[in-house]
Design goal:
The protein has 13 helices and 12 strands. Helix 7 links the parallel strand 4 and strand 5. It has a 7-stranded mixed β-sheet, sandwiched between helices. Strands 10-11-12 form a 3-stranded antiparallel β-sheet. The chain folds into 2 domains: about 240 residues, 3-Layer(aba) Sandwich (Aspartate Aminotransferase, domain 2); about 130 residues, Alpha-Beta Complex (Aspartate Aminotransferase, domain 1). The mean pLDDT is about 95. The chain is about 40% helix and about 15% strand. By secondary structure, the chain is α/β, with parallel strands linked by helices. It binds pyridoxal-5'-phosphate.
Length: about 375
């Protein structure tokens, strides 16, 4: 258990009231012995797909795998290009590379930190097969703008919804706007397992069937291999745990939103000191996986100093993410250079993620802002 006055994340609050129910669900899997591709997996796949407003869900080992296998199911691979925001967690890029396709990075919008669709349009070539929006921090990329672009150029829309479980915008739920979407159930995500997990959701039955085969050695039926598959299944025990947690997700997201609104309110006076939150353009559809502020050039204090002083008072913060994908050493081979994506590079220098999780108390938010105020002076 995290004993800091304000930890960055605390999962005990959500798990404690569900402990008996979760133990029962685990006991049921043990009694059934169907640890791999068992009944609770099928049940959770159906329940989660339904929550996203689509017909099919296929549980996989993690979110990265959901991206890779999902794109592979659409036939994307060597020689193809997939447009990806530079400003994302590296797993988005890894998922694309695992298919053999080339990730084409593009810059982000300076206010929302989401993919810049004008930059995306400029990056389209005859090899472009898909655009992969990332609903970063829990805010969806505008479906109307994205779908318009995708239709104009006949591109697949494949969502990275790893940070956006049940987010919505313009009447679309995360996971339902394009051909398919990838979710992660890493423990600290809005819906988290007791270990790793992921899911591919799609409205297309053929894609769901193909991913079902791909995750299971490429075998649609036992010992009959029609695909170059892999071993990437969501464990039955993890699915059973997630099934118990799913009915609470909406209220947890609502809590995140209320906490974000309270932060927004308390932070408003800091705007003239160069501190303000990342812009929310989607109202209550934002599910605030992270609450991110930025410190621009007019801010009197250095980010690192602020972070360490907050930490000294027991307030944990994070940076999501400190280095943009195109400047990560392992991805030199993609050929990008410093200066290629100025907005993303600037954001990486300015952002700070404040504690955010359902169960975070009003007093704790006050504590964070009081200390911030004192440090800024
Ligand atoms: C967490 C995350 C992933 C990867 O999910 P894993 O389950 O850790 O593989 C992909 N994209 C984004 C934006 C994420 O936040």
């Amino acid at each position: 258990m995290n004993s800091a006055p304000v930890p960055f994340v605390d999962l005990t609050w959500q798990h404690q009231p569900l402990e008996d129910e979760i133990k029962e669900a685990i006991a049921k899997v043990i009694a059934g012995g169907d640890f791999v591709l068992g009944k609770a997996l099928k049940d959770f796949e159906n329940a989660f797909a339904k929550a996203c407003g689509v017909d099919h869900g296929v549980g996989v080992a993690n979110g990265t795998s959901a991206i890779a296998l999902g794109l592979q199911a659409y036939g994307i691979g060597y020689g193809d290009e997939v447009i990806v925001p530079d400003n994302t967690f590296i797993a988005t890029v890894i998922g694309v590379l695992q298919t053999g396709a080339r990730p084409i990075l593009v810059d982000c919008d300076q206010a929302t930190a989401l993919i810049d669709l004008k930059a995306a349009e400029k990056a389209i070539t005859s090899k472009t097969k898909a655009i992969l929006p990332v609903h970063l921090y829990g805010q969806m990329v505008s479906p109307s703008a994205l779908l318009h672009l995708a239709r104009t150029y006949n591109l697949l829309v494949f969502e990275d919804a790893a940070q956006a479980h049940l987010a919505n915008r313009e009447g679309y739920r995360a996971g339902s706007m394009g051909g398919a979407a990838a979710f992660s159930f890493y423990p600290s995500k809005n819906l988290g397992a007791f270990g790793n997990g992921g899911m591919l959701v799609t409205g297309e039955e053929a894609i769901a069937q193909r991913v079902s085969a791909l995750r299971n050695y490429g075998a649609p039926s036992k010992y009959f291999h029609t695909e170059l598959g892999t071993n990437s299944r969501l464990d039955t025990i993890q699915a059973a745990i997630l099934e118990v947690k799913l009915p609470h997700l909406e209220s947890w997201n609502q809590q995140r939103y209320q906490i974000a609104q309270y932060y927004d309110y308390l932070l408003a006076p800091f705007a003239d000191k160069g501190i303000y939150p990342i812009t929310n353009e989607s109202g209550s559809g934002h599910v605030y996986h992270l609450y991110v502020i930025r410190l621009d050039r007019s801010c009197p204090i250095d980010r690192q100093q602020l972070q360490s002083e907050l930490n000294n008072s027991g307030i944990q913060t994070g940076i999501h993410y400190p280095i943009p994908c195109h400047l990560q050493p392992a991805y030199n081979f993609l050929g990008y250079e410093k200066g290629d994506f100025p907005q993303a590079e600037k954001l990486c220098q300015e952002i700070l993620s404040l504690p955010m999780y359902p169960g975070l108390k009003e007093e704790q938010v006050n504590f964070v802002i009081d200390h911030l105020s004192r440090i800024i002076g």
